[in-house]
Amino acid sequence: MIKIKSHDGPARLGQLDNTITPTVIDYKSVRKAENIKTPYKIQEEIAEECMLKSIELAKNDNDKDKYAVIQGAQYTNLRVECANQLEKEGYTKLIFANSDELLRNPKELLDIIITCRQNLNTTTALYFPFAPTPILPILTYIGIDIFDNSRAIYESKNNNLMTTTNIYPQNDYHITDNILDENINQLNFAIKEIQENIKNKTLRNLTEQKATTSPEAMTLHRLLDKNYTDYLLKYTQLY
User: Fold this and answer.
1) Which three-class secondary structure string do you get for 56-80?
2) pTM of the model
3) Domain membership flag for residue 239
């Protein structure tokens, strides 16, 4: 579980084992509790059945140090139920399934992540895989603690450079000779930048800066401010 050191808005600076969070991990190192892989756009009855089976599989796994998967497709109520049950079973590191689909549905992404965060213990870590570097600040701002290097590797295989502000196709923008190394460097820089901004209580400034260069971040920012004012104010220091 995470030991929370400080907040900047809903974002949390903490410690998970020997690692400062928010953090980036190697996706190949992630040990997941067994679960039922579930499509994102399916009927609620089918999503619920798969979710319940996933909970039962995780319950029967004796190693509660693994990452348990929050299933439930696009249904916020199922995601919250799944997360709560996994937490009751002793899991303190939870991973969001269908992250690529969530990225294409920003309203649902915010609703699922924020509602889960509000209904879980503060010491439970939330892991969002496959996130592009430009939106790490706003995902951290709403409560994500763990990211991975899978998107950086994916973009390099597709000959794309992923910086903290943009994704550049190598065929049009020859900025580096080693895309994978640079993608990983940019990812690590982004996390360090986020950590320092949380320490200095300036993460909101950083998310606004990124919103001016990333359409995805701008959409998330506008929806967040429009629909989740109370959530933001709950953790925001007033001067």
Assistant:
1) HHHHCCCCCCCEEEECCCCCHHHHH
2) 0.95
3) no
